[in-house]
Design goal:
The chain has 26 helices and 27 strands. A hairpin with a 5-residue loop joins strand 10 and strand 11.
Length: 892
């Protein structure tokens, strides 16, 4: 039987439905050692007993009925006993003990809806009569008109909510207020906002007192802004119970409620609370006798970005650096190399005269990688024919405007301004392809040299030189990969309007599909791991007992079982099939040793360090029993591409278009350019991955030595410092203590935002949009990636740690994919992604494998659920939840 009362220290995580969100959070904070006023909770069981005893289930005049109803005797007895125990614990000589009574609903303080201010709070209650009245008022506030309207607005069912009531010691606060661990008016994550008033916080909550407002830099620990209000009144406990309004002494009216030291202490407290929940918090606090008490902590559900931030997106970056990014990887790959490559390209295209040191091209928001799309569009718009919507569609950004957005027409002025750019672009297309081919060949020649290097055998001076050399190789390889990527995007941008116009000329006919024109590219570098793993799985399936071991062994024991296990009274390693298979598996891992769940993140272990993903994928491949050779799919995609090309040529050769042969020539030459760049984008990406692999090896060795000498706390800390810090330590220009402090702060970010999903676009307005508005829909339109249609069961895979969920024939629903996901593609019958453009790695591999794929379905991993029957139309870019489906329907 559920008790009517639970003390805060009795509450466990399972008690949430009985005590409500507010009480559960306070019990968790108390368990973590934070200062919370002691108290107890009147559970939802007591609320239900009260409702049943007074027949309130169908009441309409809620406030009057709840206020007049009697609290059942058993509930009253439990409350009286709990109050007595609390008084004996805190102040046996004090009678009565002032208490605060607060609502704690089961659908309160949620990440998507905080219910702030919707329910009742009653302060400084000193008698049983006052307490029972406060409890009834809290129960009744669950059914107030505003609370019901708020639930309806946020899609929450009133039938599922109940009310717990929190009863705590009343803190006679000297000052009270709120702390937002993320500045809600600017979205700047290193800033916290504080509001404070004298006395109790009731005046702040009701809006009758204007508070002091402070902005604290929690990162550098300083107060960056303060607005001190003229606080004429304050709320204090009344001697007869309840609260009263009193005049603030004249000398205190314009004095700050908090000192700088107290503000910094409050910021540190905020970090501690946010670290518990991994989400920005809205914290109510009280200051009494020099100590801060936490009265409530709930998720911060609404914030706005400062317009000065500009327009940023994580699209395309999430597939190479998903989730939290190690700071060194961000600093090298983006802050340094992306910026250099982007500016080099604009200079080569005569869109910039010289590099801008003040231009910020990339950045970290909430520990995730973003690029400055607003700045990129500024320069791209110099080219005649620029269309913002086409630009956004290519890179995978969801437009936030109507129509085509910003455009650059073909006017005499724009043509004169753009002609040198267009000529330079044509020349640069050719030059970068030649540079890419030359560099890839050169890298392969040099790879044997630094690939055989053993960093552990180097002395300190040699290791420092090796680190600097590998940073340079990292830069070289990433530079050519980035230039190729940028121009691949631009080439498709140039080509898309040609395809659109061709389809507009023939309305009503099946449109020419970009995805079909770009499939069947042959020998794509990022597809090779998939083909190799398929071959291994077929080899295992040819030996039934071997296949059985692979399927039945756990991941932890699989490698050992494969090395040796009894088989027909002979050790497995003595059977030719066993020796050969294990050798083949090791060779596969060695060949693709540079791969990782996120190979651009230097902090991420590679396959030769941790082959767990390979073994997991192998188990799924063997279980799937796929007899279709991927090479046959590749050949089919070539035929599909050629048929689509012929359809396009036929259209270009009929009607009035036959009088414009230049248009046909332009169309076909641009198509070939896009195809060539698409292929080389994947090839340079593989080369960059291999460069990152060797770079990680020397950095890890340097990290080990610094950790051994106390410079760093652990070897992996080397990946959580910025490029300038790394070079400063190598050259002896920077002290270890500063670097350790930076590392600690960056690592803290991954803890305090671990449960927070940043928006994919930051545009100087609004916070993250929610998926609740779209959950009722059944049909969703994204970007078509091609390869036909399929109807099958969905599997939502958020990251590669969940890869074993995907079984043969499932539709893979993912936020994004990168080259590390490639082995999974052979299992998927269809793919739905939240992000990605037609030239993203996942889109290229999906087309080559002939998998129906739709990109840019916003919130897909929240909208779709495991086991739902989906219809994925890769040609039209439509995903549909199939209604009334019952089981194993699968079609293609």
């Amino acid at each position: 039987m559920i008790p009517y009362v639970l003390t805060l220290d009795q509450i466990t995580a399972e008690d949430g439905p009985q005590v409500g969100s507010k009480a559960l959070h306070l019990s968790e904070l108390q368990e973590e050692g934070l200062r919370v006023p002691p108290g107890f909770v009147i559970t939802t069981e007591a609320y239900r007993a009260f409702v049943a005893a007074n027949e309130l289930e169908d009441a309409t005049d809620w406030s009057d009925r709840f206020d007049q109803a009697e609290v059942p005797g058993g509930v009253v007895e439990a409350i009286v006993e709990a109050c007595r125990a609390l008084r004996d614990q805190l102040s046996p000589s004090s009678d009565p003990l002032p208490l605060a009574v607060r609502s704690s609903a089961t659908a309160e303080d949620l990440a998507q809806a905080s219910f702030a201010g919707q329910y009742d709070t009653h302060l400084n209650l000193t008698s049983l009569e006052q307490i029972l009245k406060g409890v009834r008022a809290c129960w009744g506030s669950l059914w107030s008109e505003r609370a019901r309207a708020y639930r309806q607005k946020n899609g929450l069912s009133s039938a599922e909510v109940a009310m717990g009531v929190l009863v705590q010691q009343q803190i006679p606060a000297d000052a009270s207020g709120v702390l937002f661990t993320l500045n809600p008016t600017t979205g700047r994550e290193r800033q916290m906002a504080v509001e404070a008033v004298w006395g109790l916080g009731e005046g702040l909550a009701s809006g009758q007192i204007t508070p002091d407002h402070y902005v604290v830099d929690g990162w550098d620990e300083g107060v960056v802004a303060r607005q001190i209000a003229d606080k004429g009144v304050m709320i204090l406990p009344d001697e007869d119970g309840g609260v009263r309004e009193v005049t603030v002494p004249s000398e205190d009216r314009q004095e700050p409620c908090l000192t700088d030291d107290q503000l910094l202490e409050l910021a540190r407290l905020g970090y501690k609370v946010q670290a518990i929940y991994g989400y920005p918090q809205d914290i109510e606090w009280a200051l009494y006798d020099g100590e801060f008490y936490i009265l409530q902590s709930r998720p911060l559900t609404s914030f706005t970005f400062d317009p000065d931030i500009g327009q940023w997106t994580s699209v395309n970056l999430r597939e190479v650096l998903p989730g939290f990014v190690s700071v060194l990887s961000q600093s090298l790959s983006h802050d340094w190399e992306w910026s250099e490559a982007m500016q080099e390209l604009f200079i080569r295209l005569r869109m910039m005269r010289k590099r801008r040191e003040d231009a910020r091209w990339t950045g970290l928001f909430f520990g995730h990688a973003y690029w400055n799309v607003g700045l990129a569009k500024k320069y791209a718009a110099l080219i005649p024919g620029f269309e913002e919507r086409a630009f956004d569609r290519t890179v995978g950004i969801e437009p936030t405007y109507e129509g085509k957005g910003r455009t650059t027409g073909y006017t005499p002025r724009s043509i004169l301004r753009g002609l040198p750019i267009l000529l330079a672009l044509k020349r640069t297309y050719k030059e970068v392809l030649e540079e890419a081919q030359t560099y890839c060949e050169e890298f392969r020649r040099r790879e044997e040299d630094f690939g055989q290097m053993d960093p552990s055998s180097l002395n300190d001076e040699e290791l420092r030189a090796a680190v600097k050399r590998m940073l340079h190789i990292h830069f070289e390889a990433n530079r050519i990969a980035l230039l190729t990527t940028f121009l691949a995007t631009q080439s498709q941008d140039d080509f898309q309007p040609m395809v659109d116009r061709l389809n507009e000329d023939y309305p009503g006919r099946r449109p020419i599909a970009m995805g079909r024109l770009l499939t069947g590219l042959s020998d794509v570098g990022t597809v090779k791991p998939l083909l190799g793993l398929w071959r291994l799985s077929r080899r295992a399936q040819s030996e039934p007992m071997l296949a059985e071991v692979i399927q039945e062994a756990s991941l932890g024991e699989l490698s050992q079982r494969l090395r040796s296990f009894p088989l027909q009274d002979r050790p497995f390693q003595d059977r030719p099939q066993g020796r050969e298979f294990w050798a083949a598996l090791e060779e596969y891992i060695e060949t693709f040793r540079y791969m990782a769940p996120s190979d651009e993140d230097l902090a991420c272990p590679r396959w030769d360090e941790d082959p767990t993903f390979v073994l997991r994928a192998l188990k799924n491949f063997v279980a799937g029993g796929d007899e279709e050779n991927p090479k046959e799919r590749f050949e089919l995609q070539k035929r599909i591409r050629e048929l689509e090309r012929k359809r396009a040529i036929a259209r270009l050769s009929h009607g009035w278009l036959r009088f414009a042969p230049w248009r046909r020539s332009s169309f076909l030459s641009q198509l070939e350019l896009v195809k060539e760049y698409c292929w080389w984008r994947e090839e340079t990406r593989v080369i960059a991955s291999r460069a990152f692999y060797y770079c990680r090896k020397v950095l890890l060795e340097q990290g080990r030595r610094w950790a051994d000498r106390g410079v760093l706390e652990e070897p992996e800390d080397i990946f959580w410092m910025e490029r300038e810090h790394l070079l400063g330590l190598l050259e002896g220009k920077l002290g270890p203590s500063k670097v350790r402090d930076v590392v600690r702060k960056h690592r803290r970010t991954t803890v305090i935002y671990r449960n927070f999903t940043p928006p994919s676009a930051i545009v100087g307005r609004g916070g993250p949009e929610r998926a609740t508005r779209r959950l009722a829909a059944r049909k969703f339109t994204g970007v078509a990636c091609g390869s036909g249609q399929v109807t099958a069961r969905a599997k939502v895979v958020h990251n590669l740690g969940e890869a074993d969920k995907l079984k043969k024939g499932d539709i893979l629903v993912a936020p994004y994919t990168n080259p590390g996901w490639t082995p999974l593609f052979s299992l998927a019958s269809g793919i739905v992604m939240e992000e990605g453009g037609l030239l993203s790695h996942g889109a290229v591999v999906a087309r080559e494998c002939g998998i129906p794929t739709v990109l840019q379905i916003k919130d897909a991993v929240r909208i779709f659920q495991d086991g739902q029957l989906l219809r994925v139309d890769g040609d039209r870019g439509v995903v549909e939840i199939v209604e009334g489906a019952t089981g194993d329907e699968t079609s293609r």
